[in-house]
Each structure stands twice: as structure tokens, then as C-alpha cells.
Amino acid sequence: MYRIGTGFDLHRLAEGRKLVIGGVEIPSPVGFDAHSDGDIFFHALTDALLGAVGYGDIGELFPDRDERWKGADSSVFLKEAHRIVREMGYSVVNVDGFILLERPKILPYREKIIKNTARILNIDEKSVFVKGKTYERIGEIGEGKAGVCQVVVLLKKEEP
Ligand code: MG
Question: For residue 92, how far is its CA from the centre of ligand 1 (angstroms)?
């Protein structure tokens, strides 16, 4: 039996913040302005995993008013969502997502993002993919004021 999950995230970009995507710190004059490290890929993926099993969402599990998550490494959220999914008897088949970010380009960091994600989910790197796209200079995303991520995940029920 299969279950599919989808996740979405957006964060504003601000000066003096680190730009972290998929656990990779990417050199940039601006980074995501968020309570945690603002990793839009790990946030969207966490929501996709939780949604696939109907468990809840990232805001319920890790509220941004909780001091524990201030500046948090978002791999903590992803690891916990993965633990929940495994506990409910599912394993991850594959992950696919895209990141909308005007700059910098994601491509040079894609392999590292895939590697980090595959390691956390304990799956083959071939089962994780992510694409970087620009927003063609349209609106706030196109002006580089924010970044967006959407992720889809497929889960499979393990044989008892
Ligand atoms: Mg977020």
C-alpha cells in the first residue's frame, strides 16, 4: 500500500541570515528569515512526510514560538518526521521537489542536498531529486525577496 504526501514552504530572504537548503549552507548575501535555520527544503519535506501518514504538520509539532527551535538545524524536524513515518510502518520510496529562488543557483549544491536528504531518510541517492528554478524576475520571489519550495514524497507500507 502506497501513500503520497505533499509539502510547501516559503520564507522571506533577509540580510545577515544564513542561506540553508537541504542542510547545505550556500554562500549568499541573504538568507531565510525564520525562527529555525529556515531550510525550506527540509521544512517542505517534513510536512510532506507528516501529511502522507496524516499525522499533523510541522507547525503543530515544532511551533515557532517554542524557544527550543530557535535557530534550529531543520534536519532535527526531518529526522523526527521520518521516525514517525517509520514507526507507523512506512518507508520512503522517493522524494521529488523544486525550489524557486532567484539567486543563487541551486545546481552547484544539488548533489550535496540530495546526499544529505538520502542519508537522513536512509534511502538511495537515486530516490531523491530536487530542481532549482527561478521565478523569471516576476513578483516578490522574482525580485529575490523570498524563496519557495514544494516537495512530493511517496511512501510504501512495509510488509508485517
Ligand atoms: Mg519553514
Answer: 21
